[in-house]
Amino acid sequence: MSQRITERSNSLTQDIDIASIDGMVRLLRTCDAQMFCGYETFPSSFDESTIQSLCKIALRMKQCIEDWRSDESSAPVSNVFMSGCGTSGRIAYFCARNYNYCIRKLFGKADDGKDCFQYIIAGGVNALVSPQEAAEDKPEVGKNDLLSLISQNNTEKGLFIGITCGFSAAYVAGQIMHLSEDKSLNIDSVLFGFNPVEFARELPIEGPEGITGSTRMKGGSATKLLLDVAFSAAILSILNNNDNCYTNGISLTHNVRELIIHTLQGFEMTTRCTYDSAFSLGSEIINPKLFEKPISNAIDMASQSLKHSAATRDNTAVPRNEKEIGHIYYVGCGNAGILGFIDASECVPTYGAHPMDVRGFVKNGWNEIFQSEKTDSNREVLPQVNSNDSVFFLVIDNTLSEEVLNEMIELYHEVKNTKLASTCWLVVTAQSTADYEHASVLPKISELLLNQSHDNNNTKKTHTVVVPLPKLTPVPYLYGYAELCLKLMLNAITTASHVQKGMTFGNRMINLKVSNNKLYYRAINIVSTIMKVSEQVAEECVLRAIYNDTTPDSNLVSHHISKAMTVSKVVPVALLLAASKAAGENKSVWENKIQEH
């Protein structure tokens, strides 16, 4: 196959840059549906080959969890390691955090610092919030990071899950290769990705991304939901079978298979509900405003902030005045807040966005991520906000205590009435909220809307996007359905906002940061495709943009990437250079034709 599927242009979204906001939402909805219906003739999430692969992963996870929860001194130290680069590494972190919390709550085991699930991200902990793409190309570093973590945990056996959506991360390849060579480690390995390769287990092909190569979208969503499916099946198997291999004459593998299909169906329904069931709260009672398009309204609000003073913001010769230009801010608690800052961190390498353009704030900040002492998140957010900003309050319903909700409402009043910013509440709720620990936030948010007519300072409307799901959790304490829903909304908001700002040509990003092998060759492909020149000419133009027409002192791609990381707007400049090349070639063709006549 000449080109990886994850690097192809999706024909569905090839004109997304000229679509209306409503049209963009419809296109993204159709693209996300490919996570379940598949792409062309390749297997989907519901194909038997995928189900069987997930069964094996779930059963191996089950063994590791049972070893971890065992009180017997003879039980081996078992771990599940999840590793990736960029988006994949952030998903590994997010899932490990969630799964450890879930099994401790379910099985009542105290936090002794010995976690069953471990994560590895290329570039270390800083890569969770800022791009460190260069680390992706270092297989030896990947191997050493894995061995270090195995040693720290005294792991005797386990499962390694390497996550690389496009099968392009040498960092993960180094880890997989070492485990395949050193069987004494007693760690099975599996590779998660969405391209057909001869040496990897078949996994679903979910089709090209809505924005070409942006695997933070479908690739990230599909990876997370499939991991959640395997984990949920492992947990339910433990809860339902009580260590028996047979229940009512049905084999354990068959039980796990049925659990996997059921959970996959839940995620498919979640994706549909995100786009088709979202509604805005009415200002008088909790009543869906059926004829509004809430996700489109949220995108429009965010894009207005990003487009504000765009000419000044993008002129590197003029210093940015952060107090006057527009930004997008996400504010949330727990997993909702973490999803916000992950989405924000990915806008820099994807669209060449300024690090201040889209930012995520988590209640308690880094302390929330590492479950340490508390800080006052309000003091972190308020100084940043101005009247051109859009502030999104992220909520997974029934997970917030009254105290935390009141703090978010206090911050909302300050942002709206003192800072005069645009505001929006994104709430994922359950159709029935009777079975959850905390009360629903919807009555209080509806009360806010009722009182907003009394806010004399800020006449801007407070938007709301509420998505009611059949369930928030596939298993107790794992809010996988709600998290996928919120991730899809956040991806839609930042994707469509940057498209509205003009950061794509068709569905191709045109200002990506050339910071690793994958992005270097993606830049060449973008120039070649858009300007219709050969890949050789496209690479020449990319190199001219990187070196400013000076001669490179090395032919190594790694050297070009190191230089490119210090240069801005490599792809836009290369496109202009390729345009002149294409024009020159066309002129020569016409001159030859004239001479022939």
UniProtKB/TrEMBL annotation:
Domain SIS: 69-241
GO MF entries: carbohydrate binding; enzyme binding; enzyme inhibitor activity; fructose-6-phosphate binding
Xref: Gene3D superfamilies: 1.10.8.1080, 3.40.50.12620, Glucose-6-phosphate isomerase like protein, domain 1
Record flagged with keyword Transferase: no
Keywords: Carbohydrate metabolism
Any GO CC annotation of this UniProt entry: cytosol
One Pfam family it belongs to: GKRP_SIS_N
Record-level GO BP terms: carbohydrate derivative metabolic process; glucose homeostasis; response to fructose
Annotated protein name in UniProt: SIS domain-containing protein
Naturally occurring in which organism (per UniProt): Naegleria lovaniensis
